[in-house]
Amino acid sequence: MKIAYIILAHRYPEQLTRLVLRLNSENVSFFIHIDKRTDSRIYHQATTQLCHLNNVHFIHRNKCYWGGFGLVQAPIEGINEIFKRNISFDWLILLTGQDYPLKSNNQIAKVLEENEGKIFMTYEDYRIPPDKSWQTSGTDRIHYWHFILTTHFRLVLPPQLTASTYLRSKILKIKWLRLVSSLYTSLLFWVPIEERVFLKDFNVFLGSASWCLPRNCVEYIQNFIQTNPAYVNYFKYVEIPDELFFQTIVLNSPFKDKVVNDNLFYIDWQNPNPKGPRVFVKDDFNRLANTSDLFGRKFDSTRDAEILDMIDEKILEKV
């Protein structure tokens, strides 16, 4: 059983190194993307700490703003690099630098082997509003034009007052951003800009950005991306496309009946501290120890490194 990991990281090089070393084995390869916005010192530290491993590859860097296409482009770069290097793998798993295994390498391999041919990604039909609290039921994410300029500054066309991005910018409580958003909306509110129409014969699916995919599904995705540039270009102006891009490809493919609506990641959105998803701390250990999921998200070693020590000593090294 050979596993390839794509890891998206932008900070905490020590934690990234710890993740790689914990997952490292002779049957594993890593393709690491460091956000292009990340300080060069952090990038140098990460590459220096892992340069002795022949199975670790650092891929072409993109700017990854939250909600932007960079978070889709990064795993695409990873997939392309895997096939360019002719890497042998049975499964491809997408991680972030703040994820951590909750099962040993042998246990991870066993679970994947027992589920040969299955595809692990969460999904729901986007036509069923995932969050009814949004005034547009979230449809503006895909039917409006979204221009991600910086982490906090983004423009939306049409500039409707009900656009979810506009609502979030109001919540941010940044005075200058609220002013710019209000002026932008007022100036362009009456401009006749039509909503975008998604590609014909495609249903849109929404899910977590993390997934575990068998090789034949990854091959299908790469071929689809290469032969459908209009699909890729459409998502360049979608908001939070990493929750939609891969799900929509797979759930509209011949592989749709192989999808298990579970990505094998333990993520807690119900107990933010203070934001979600929850950053796990030592008080969360029992929950992490008793889950059947393979990975946990998310952890912050600068906030609580003891939880990682506990996972190592009481779960991973106990096996």
Provide key terms for this protein.
single chain, 319 residues, alpha/beta, Spore Coat Polysaccharide Biosynthesis Protein SpsA, Chain A, five-stranded mixed β-sheet, three-stranded mixed β-sheet, 12 helices, 14 strands
Topology overview:
Elements: E1 3-9, H1 13-23, E2 28-34, H2 40-50, E3 56-58, H3 70-84, E4 91-96, E5 99-101, H4 105-114, E6 119-120, E7 124-125, H5 140-143, E8 145-148, E9 154-157, H6 164-171, H7 175-188, E10 205-206, E11 212-214, H8 215-227, H9 229-235, H10 245-251, E12 259-260, E13 265-267, H11 285-290, E14 295-297, H12 306-316
Parallel strand pairs: 1-2, 1-4, 2-3, 6-12, 13-14
Antiparallel strand pairs: 4-11, 5-14, 7-10, 8-9
Helix pairs in contact: 1-2
Written overview of the protein:
The protein has 319 residues and is α/β, with parallel strands linked by helices. The chain has helices spanning 13-23, 40-50, 70-84, 105-114, 140-143, 164-171, 175-188, 215-227, 229-235, 245-251, 285-290, 306-316; strands spanning 3-9, 28-34, 56-58, 91-96, 99-101, 119-120, 124-125, 145-148, 154-157, 205-206, 212-214, 259-260, 265-267, 295-297. The chain folds into two domains: 3-125 and 203-316, Spore Coat Polysaccharide Biosynthesis Protein SpsA, Chain A, CATH 3.90.550; 145-188, no CATH class. The protein has a five-stranded mixed sheet with strand order 3-2-1-4-11, with helices on both faces. It has a three-stranded mixed sheet with strand order 5-14-13. The protein has a two-stranded parallel sheet with strand order 6-12. α2 (40-50) links the parallel β2 and β3. The mean pLDDT is 89.
